[in-house]
Amino acid sequence: MSQEVTTKQLTPMQRFNAQIRGANAQAYLVDVLGEKKEAFVTSLVSVVANDANLQKCNPMSVVYAAMKSVPIGLPIEKNLGYAAVIPYGTDASFQIMRNGWMELAMRTGQVRFIANEVVYDGQLVKKNKFTGEYIFDEDAKKSDEIIGYMAYIKLINGFEKTVYWTTGECKAHALRYSQTYKKGYGLWVDNFDAMALKTVLKHLIVKYCPKSPELQKAITDDQSVTNKDNISTYADNTPDEQPQPETTATAKEKAAAVKEQVEAMKARQAKAAQVNTDTGEVTDDLPFGNE
Q1: Which domain holds residue 120?
Q2: Taking the complete model, does pTM exceed 0.85, yes or no?
Q3: Based on the domain organization, do 275 and 218 belong to the same domain?
Q4: Does residue 5 lie within any of the structural domains?
């Protein structure tokens, strides 16, 4: 029996195991992760074994996506709600979940309190459009109709901010950014409330939370699909929202581009946690587009 026939007879999970345990993949993982390699592989194999759609992905795409979790220290077990590896056809995307964003915000050491809640009919009492202040009353709920989603943060210097999006605004956001939502499937369709909560929370954190190096990297890596050349795209975003690498770039040009990105990140990190103590404003506001 030929090796080709034997390979075809393997199940998707067996093929994934064979790929990740292969000499090239193991050498790559040792080079990048060192002594953390075995723990990473064990965790990843468990995640893939419980997701039939991930088993259909390119194994190295799954590896590249999962490795995004290592420098920011978030587990990729989906049930924990911190981070996950999400299949998009044959590619895998790294996504930070609601608990992950809260965890990263708290790790900055600048956050006193953070909240992220569904808002039911009757619970939004008042909005001051001039100050941006919202007043909610948990006990004023009139029905089970969800009218919006809120996120609130208070920093240790006293600065506080609330972000509130109506259900309609969240749907408009999903229609603008998510190709799968437009086609009637994917995370926004399967669990709209969870995605809306996470998106409003991420918006709040990206705009108003002081940026630790971990948090800055999380903002860059969230929802990305990364290839062997370390070039990232955003699988579920509309094409015009995706960073477009030069298709004719040589290997040296690609390496130089990556190095330039790293240097730029270091420069941002050097001023990451600058907060105006009088107003609570973060001075290094990063753009928010890859939700």
Answers
A1: 97-291
A2: no
A3: yes
A4: yes
